[in-house]
Design a protein that fits this description.
single chain, mainly alpha, 2 domains, two-stranded antiparallel ribbon, 69% helix, 2% strand, globular, transmembrane helix, membrane
Length: 584
């Protein structure tokens, strides 16, 4: 009872602190984004790039982020075109009772018309590279060396595409040089990064379909503690053999015990291998250029995609999909309010943060990370919504708010979640999984950086993340080992008394976890600011400012704020657990 009372008092204090923190952040952000301060910067230092006349209260709108600006400006035409494709595809599926093969042809035709507008004559590059990858899979898929060939081929294509920036047609002869005038409106090699992931997914799934025995999902779910808890074990990811009967797909999803994520029962079933005839060129090409997911994803494995082409998802009803879309519209309005009143990204891209105080720099950095989260949230949820309308369910990106993650593993899983699932399936587990975790993270994050772009600041982000990841991995491994040892001692009754965790011991552990969470959040801030805002040189400059006499109080206050935020996250998780216990 005393512990519960203390927790209530603690929660009250934490909420007051959080309210004060956000009041300061909002007040300083409004000051920095005021017309007077923007004019002051213009006359004394430099103008904030990317500010355009807005539609809210006569304020300027921060559209300095090129990715967000392009998405926002093209949203009307994108909605009309993809909405039309979706309606046509659904009508044809309903009228003619089309299944996988028929729907693949429909989507190839519509997607090719879409890509022709985006990339013009460069569609030929996409089809040519995709055909080479398909031919290699069909010839060598049974070979034990195939996966190595697949990765070398796709990594080479990824790097060469970037070096040559999509290739000039004149490289292949002057008679083709005129095609350089018809390259479309969007650089094809930027979108091709996602196509690379899909080509690897197809190749691996096709290769594994020859290697693994029949997989009984029901028995596995009953026996496997990992899968029954909502996670996915090694065997279930790799058990990929063409099925003897029809896949019962999809299955209604269930909630995990911790309430954070959904068990993808339908996706889980589809991740197993599908009928061998679905590995056809038409299904493969449809998967690579499927219009609703082509530009930004989310990423879904070939097996899951092909299974849903045969039988559309049933986890979301029409009403739920409509509510999903309405929530997206409300989030878009939130983003518009944010970019009209807070010019975080304009400060970052203009380099004007160098003229600010240490506190203001940290506020700008924090604001940029929240802007990035909201930007990707809107882009990915938009295409997820369109995909759901066509009957394709994908892993949900951004399942948790950026401000509700206090360890690196959770943050990564809760950011580009579909990419994380792809990395686990096609890289992490084949490389040895948790047995080689400390080595695997370096390989995986280096690949992630190169996949995004060939820039040193992205490599610095990747390697900083790995450095910060190492202590967390070691601590979690030690903690898991101790818990397993305690369980074994209790079960074997080798201990005289069962390990008793005193209230004081639990309190100390909670405080240590909160401090560790604050350290982790600090590391995340540094890594992401280095990779996406300031670059390594900017981070070096910022740290030198914070270590000066006037910056030390700000540094201490920032760490205290991260500590308080971590404690609040603990309370959120405790509340979720209590609600789930009541439900059970």
């Amino acid at each position: 009872m005393r512990c519960r009372s203390f927790r209530q008092w603690e929660l009250g204090f934490l909420l007051l602190y959080a309210a004060a923190f956000y009041a300061i952040v909002i007040d300083r952000s409004l000051h920095l984004s005021s017309s007077n301060y923007v004019s002051f910067l213009f006359y004394h230092y430099e103008t904030l790039r990317g500010l355009r006349p807005g539609w809210i209260s006569g304020r300027l709108n921060d559209i300095s982020d090129a990715q967000w600006r392009n998405f926002r400006e093209n949203l009307p035409i994108l909605t009309v075109v993809l909405g039309f494709f979706t309606i046509v595809a659904n009508i044809l599926r309903y009228w003619y009772n089309l299944k996988g093969r028929g729907m693949s042809f429909i989507w190839i035709l519509t997607s090719l018309s879409y890509l022709s507008y985006l990339h013009g004559a460069c569609v030929g590059y996409i089809i040519s590279i995709a055909s080479l990858n398909f031919f290699m899979a069909k010839v060598f898929a049974r070979s034990k060396y195939y996966l190595g060939m697949l990765w070398v081929f796709n990594l080479a294509i990824l790097i060469v595409n970037r070096i040559f920036e999509g290739y000039s047609f004149s490289l292949f002869g002057q008679q083709l040089a005129f095609l350089d005038n018809y390259r479309g409106t969007f650089r094809w090699h930027i979108c091709f990064n996602l196509v690379i992931l899909r080509m690897i997914s197809y190749g691996c799934d096709y290769h594994w379909s020859y290697k693994k025995p029949y997989f009984d999902q029901k028995k596995h779910m009953q026996r496997c503690n990992i899968c029954s808890s909502g996670k996915t074990c090694y065997f279930s990811l790799q058990a990929l053999e063409p099925m003897c009967g029809k896949i019962e797909f999809p299955v209604k999803v269930e909630r995990k015990r911790n309430g954070d994520l959904l068990i993808w029962s339908s996706m889980f079933a589809a991740e197993r291998s599908i009928h061998g005839d679905k590995y056809s060129f038409s299904m493969y090409l449809c998967y690579l250029i499927y219009a609703p997911l082509y530009i930004a994803g989310p990423i879904v494995s070939f097996n899951a995609f092909a299974a849903q082409m045969d039988m559309p998802q049933k986890n979301y009803s029409l009403g739920e999909i409509i509510r999903y879309g309405l929530k997206w519209i409300l989030t878009l309005l939130l983003m518009e309010a944010m970019t009209h009143f807070f010019y975080y990204n304009a400060f970052a891209v203009s380099g004007s943060w160098r003229h600010l105080s240490p506190l203001e720099i940290l506020i700008i950095g924090y604001g940029v990370l929240n802007f990035m989260w909201l930007k990707f949230f809107l882009i990915w949820r938009y295409f997820t919504f369109l995909s759901l309308m066509t009957g394709i369910e994908t892993p949900e990106n951004m399942p948790r708010c950026i401000n509700n993650c206090y360890d690196l593993e959770t943050f990564w899983k809760s950011w580009h979640a579909s990419f994380n699932k792809w990395l686990v399936r096609y890289m992490y587990i084949p490389l040895g999984g948790s047995q080689r975790k400390l080595v695997n993270v370096w390989v995986i994050f280096t690949f992630v950086a190169v996949w995004h772009d060939l820039e040193w600041k992205l490599l610095s982000w990747a390697w900083l993340t790995c450095i910060f990841f190492a202590p967390e991995i070691l601590i979690k491994s030690c903690r898991n080992a101790v818990q397993i040892l305690q369980t074994m001692l209790v079960k074997s009754q080798l201990s005289v008394t069962r390990p008793v965790r005193s209230a004081f011991g639990m309190c100390i552990q909670r405080e240590l976890n909160a401090v560790a969470g604050a350290v982790t959040i600090s590391c995340l801030m540094v890594a992401n600011l280095a990779g996406f805002v300031m670059g390594p040189s900017g981070i070096k400059w910022l740290i030198s400012r914070l270590l000066h006499k006037d910056g030390l109080p700000i540094l201490a206050g920032t760490f205290t704020t991260f500590y308080v935020g971590t404690k609040l996250m603990f309370h959120i998780r405790d509340a979720k657990k209590c609600n789930q216990l009541k439900d059970h």
